[in-house]
Amino acid sequence: MPAAPHVVIVGGGFGGLYAAKALDRAPLRVTVIDRRNHHLFQPLLYQVAMAGLSPGDIAYPIRSILRRQANARVLLAEVEAVDLGARRVSLAGEDSLAYDYLILAPGVRHAYFGHEEWEAFAPGLKSLEDALEIRRRMLLAFERAERETDAAERRRLLTFVIVGAGPTGVELAGALADIARNVLVSDFRAIDPREARILLLEHGPRVLPPFPESLSARALASLRRLGVEVRCGRAVTGVGTDGVRLGDERIESRTVLWAAGVAASPLARTLGVPLDRAGRVLVEADLSVPGHPEAFVVGDLAACLDETARPLPGVAPAAIQAGRHAARNILRAASGRSSEPFRYLDRGNLATIGRAAAVADFGFLRISGAIAWLLWIVVHIFFLIGFRNRAIVLLEWAWAYFTSQRGARLITGDVRRRFEPPRGR
């Protein structure tokens, strides 16, 4: 009896995980490959970076998620290349794996627009390691300011710059303002954390570019009420240990955070197929790779247009829908039927700005303030994996709201190394 067709899924994020779950009980062998052993709920990653949640609150082992799916196995490995002609994926360590069907959902990393050297001075936020590094830098800035006697250096330590005013940048700025003004206000003696200066820089004309202008304006007003300085319409031209440069202007800061863009996985370049300017795969209408109907690309690596010719948003609901659709097309192909085009159902867009402040765009309905914030909470709790995580996150948020305390304010690693203030480049 011939073996069941083999489906290889690269990536355990939203797209890959929901594709695997959609193939449960199918007469197929499913292998999920990820270089990490956990599924990460990226929309709440900024909460780990801002000491609101612990890493385990927003991550869940992939093996545990798929433990009851008899036709699925999980491999902890990194895929280095894909040979579409031979239908094989190459793993780090010179191993390879054959497939009958392929779903690529490796996710993305942050982009520095040709200035990769900036990453050392301005970490981005795409992994738990990134979040813990940002948390470390943010908390140590306050600790170092407490013992700093030079007024100029203290100002640098208490100046925080966030580059990029999309949802991640806005959420980071709002959470950081809440920490400085509400959480840390009674913890220090030599400094007043409320004097922290938080700048949000955006190259485009407004904050939250994916949202309508009316909601962007409301978000801007909320940020300013929190004390965040917002600057739009100017590009960052330099980043170093002394801060950032905007043309001839220099903003001195010891903590710079990057939220300005994403870069496609280098895995796309191994496919030998057309890519867009951002390095994403120009997929067919059914999400398949051109010329290879057995291979699909979903999530942030896919350059796909919706029915109105707009690029699909890089959000969790889009990845989930795409992953499920790719799985359905594989089931259709395995039963001898033709594939169907992907149609994205836009369920709206949400972004939180701070305590009881958020914006929500549902197309027919645009709201902001406390109601949008409550909707944001409900949606994010719903999409979290695992009852334990949902319960803990809800309790943590309730505790933080009523007590202005954050229990994840831990500085880990070699603290002494971080206490040496960097001086110039």
Structural account:
The protein has 425 residues and is an alpha/beta fold. It folds into two domains: 6-35 and 77-110 and 263-334, FAD/NAD(P)-binding domain; 116-260 and 355-418, FAD/NAD(P)-binding domain (3-Layer(bba) Sandwich), CATH 3.50.50.100. The protein contains eleven helices and 25 strands. The protein has helices spanning 14-22, 45-49, 62-65, 128-147, 151-157, 167-183, 213-225, 316-334, 370-383, 387-403, 415-418; strands at residues 6-10, 29-34, 38-40, 59-61, 72-76, 79-83, 88-91, 96-98, 101-104, 108-110, 159-163, 197-202, 229-232, 238-240, 243-246, 249-252, 255-258, 262-264, 281-282, 288-289, 292-297, 302-303, 349-354, 357-361, 366-368. It has a six-stranded mixed beta sheet with strand order 5-2-1-9-21-20, with helices on one face. Strands 13-12-11-17 form a four-stranded parallel beta sheet. Strands 6-7-8 form a three-stranded antiparallel beta sheet, with no helix packed on it. Helix 1 runs parallel beside helix 8 and helix 4 runs antiparallel to helix 5. It is globular, with a radius of gyration of 22 Å. The chain starts with 5 loop residues before the first strand and ends in a 7-residue tail after the last helix. Mean pLDDT is 91; it is low at 418-425.
